[in-house]
Amino acid sequence: MKLLSDFYNSRKSWSTDCFASRIRGRERTLCRLKHRELLDAAHIIPDNMPEGKSTIENGLSLCKLHHSAYDAFIIGVTPDYIIQVRADILEEEDGPVLQHGLKGLHKSTLILPSSKSHYPSREALEWRYSRFTRAGRTPSAPKHLPKSDIETLGNYQDFLLSDLGRKGGGRCPRSA
Predict the structure, then answer these.
(1) What's the whole-model pTM score?
(2) Residue 43 DSSP code
(3) Which of 15, 45, 66, 100 shows a CA-CA span of 20 to 30 A to 4?
């Protein structure tokens, strides 16, 4: 049985490495950062979800800041490739990273790859964005979830994925 698990783990690692290489190799999608060592391959639909796949259409090339913000549902992307920043973040006053690194992205358009075959899937973006909006994170939606919801569910990611019927709340992977 150990050999089977070793095979599965090495195949999953190969699949993840291959996904990351293909995604990081294409044009950046949120910012113009060109240092490959600071870029991540982010899944639009997390690969631990039944709908999630390690395909180029289910990925975004994001810098480390934007990957974390995307996984934390601080930023979302519409199926029309428009970036939205969570309402409470837009209202926050802080330094230049918040102003230029996050708030400056609001209502901008993704930087799309030159090849249409490498565009992020609109269906995957719709899946992800629907969870972003259900949590009340778009600028036109309520600013906060009730504190009791956050305490009960542990964090926003658990809340967003809890409607899928996963016991214990699935989490988005931190790295692709």
Answers:
(1) 0.68
(2) E
(3) 45
